[in-house]
Amino acid sequence: MSRVALSALLAVAAVAVAQDPTGTEPLADKRFTYPTGIPYQVDPNMGVRGAQNGYNLCNSTTENQASLCQTAFINHIDDWCVWAPPTGPTTIGESEGQEVAWCTKPGRGTRLIPQGAITGVQFLRAKSYLEVIAFLDQTMLNLAADDYGGELDPHGADLRGNPLGGLVFSNGLPLSGTGDNNTYDQVIEWHNFIGSNFSCFKACDPQDPNDHNYCYNQLDRVGIEYVCPNQAQNHVFEVCDSDNQDYPGVYTLSDGTTTSYTQPPESLGAITSMPYTARVPASSNCVTYQSSDLFPSLPTPTNVPATSAGASGSAGPAATGKAGASASASGSASRSGSAGAAPTGGSSLTGGAASLRTSAFATIAGVVVAVAFFA
Ligand SMILES: *[C@@H]1O[C@H](CO)[C@@H](O)[C@H](O)[C@H]1NC(C)=O
Ligand SMILES: *[C@@H]1O[C@H](CO)[C@@H](O)[C@H](O)[C@H]1NC(C)=O
Ligand SMILES: *[C@@H]1O[C@H](CO)[C@@H](O)[C@H](O)[C@H]1NC(C)=O
Fold first, then answer.
1. Is the whole-model pTM more than 0.70?
2. Which atom of ligand 2 is nearest to the CA of 322?
3. Which of 110, 155, 212, 239 could pair covalently with 101 via S-S, beta carbons 3.0-4.6 A apart?
4. With b meaning 16 or more CB within 10 Å and e meaning fewer, what string describes 82-115?
5. Ligand 1 pocket check: which of 32, 36, 40, 56 to mutate, most ligand atoms within 8 Å of Cβ?
6. 79 Cα: distance to centroid of ligand 2 (angstroms)
7. Mind listing the pLDDT tens digit of every residue in the chain (375 residues)?
8. Which atom of ligand 1 is nearest to the CA of 40?
9. 3-state secondary structure 18-56
10. CB-based pocket (< 6 A), ligand 2
C-alpha cells in the first residue's frame, strides 16, 4: 500500500475512533466522569462477542442481588469490588465477557458480596497502585467450586474488555495526593484475577506513566504469585503500605540485568515450568481489622435474586462502614518479601502455572480478526 493510501486509511480510522460509530474504540481509551458522566452503557455497540451484558449507570433502582451493574470501585479496605458472574455456577472462562460488579459497600447500585464470603483481605497501598487481595468462598459469587479462574481486564482480544464495558473508579487516587474520598478517578489500567477462592484486583494509578506495566494484561495463565506476588493470609483483614512489585513478567537475573517473560501460546500446552520466581514486594505499617467492622452491610447468602434494594438481608441503614472504629495496629514491623517466598494462604495459591485460564480461543479469534483488519 502506498504511504499516501496508508495515511488516508489511518486518518479515516482516527475519525472513526473519535466518534466510535462502529463500536471500535478500545474500552481502555474511553473516559468518563463519575458519577455525573456515566452513560447507560459505555459499549452500546454489537460486536463479534455480542452486546454489553449489563449497564454502567447504576443507582438505587439497580441496587439488588440481581444487579447487572458493571461499574466497579477500588477505594479502601472496607470499600471494593470484584468481577464475578451474574448467574452460575459457572467459570470465569465461560463468563468473562459478562461479569458484574460485586462490592462490599451499599450505595452505588451494585450487587453486594454475600456475608461470609470474604474470609481474609489484604489491601495494599503501593506507590503506583491500589491492590486488594481477597480470600473468598467463590461459590457465593456464582463461581463453580473448582474453577481456577482467570483474568479480567479492560483489554481482551477485541479491546472491548472483560467484562465488555466494565468500568473501574477509585476515590483513593491519585496515590501521590491525599484522596478526599469525594472525587472519583477513572482507573484506566486494572486487572482482576479471580478463582481458586481467591481474588487479586489491582487498580493502577492513571497518573503513573507505568500504569499499563504494573497492570500488565498478557500473563493470564502463570498464576497469582507472578502477577500479584503477595504475603496475604487467610483470616486476616489488614491494610498495608507496600513497595511496588516488579512489573508482572519482568525479573532480575543473578548478574543484575533485567529481562522479561513472555507467556507461551496456549496451543503449546500447559505451562509446566517458569524461569523465575517473582519478587514479593515488602509491605509495612499494616493495620488489622475485624471483618464485622469492615463489612457490616452485606446480605445473607441466597441464590434467590432480591427484588429491591436491601431485600436480601442488608444490615440496615445504621451501618456506617467506618473501618477505623476498632482498628488495632499490628505492630510496626515491616515484613520484607523474599524472592523465594511462596505466597501464603494455602493450597488455593499453589496452583502455579496451571492455576489460571482465560479463553485463549477468544484471544486467538481476536488476533485473527485484528490481523484481518490490518492486513
Ligand atoms: C438508574 O439506572 C437505570 C439503569 O441504568 C437507568 O435506566 C435509570 O435511568 C437510572 N435513573 C436515574 C435517575 O439516573
Ligand atoms: C475515606 O474512607 C475510608 C473508609 O472507606 C476512611 O477510613 C478514611 O478515613 C476516609 N478518608 C478521608 C480523608 O475521609
Ligand atoms: C472454595 O470454597 C468452597 C467452600 O469452602 C469449597 O467448597 C471449594 O472446594 C473451594 N474451591 C477451591 C477451588 O478451593
1. yes
2. 4
3. 110
4. bbbbbebbbbbbebbbbbbbbbbbbebbbbbbbb
5. 40
6. 10
7. 344 343 433 333 333 333 455 567 999 999 999 999 999 999 998 889 999 999 999 999 999 999 999 999 999 999 999 999 999 999 999 999 999 999 999 999 999 999 999 999 999 999 999 999 999 999 999 999 999 999 999 999 999 999 999 999 999 998 887 768 999 999 999 999 999 999 999 999 999 999 999 999 999 888 899 999 999 999 999 999 999 999 999 999 999 999 999 999 989 999 999 999 999 999 999 999 999 999 999 999 875 444 433 333 333 222 222 222 233 333 333 343 332 223 333 223 223 333 343 333 233 233 322 323 222
8. 5
9. HHCCCCCCCHHHCCCCCCCCCCCCCCCCCECCECCCCEC
10. 75-76, 78-79, 180-181, 323-324
d(CA 266, ligand 2 centre) in Å = 43
Question: In terms of residues, how long is the chain?
Answer: 375
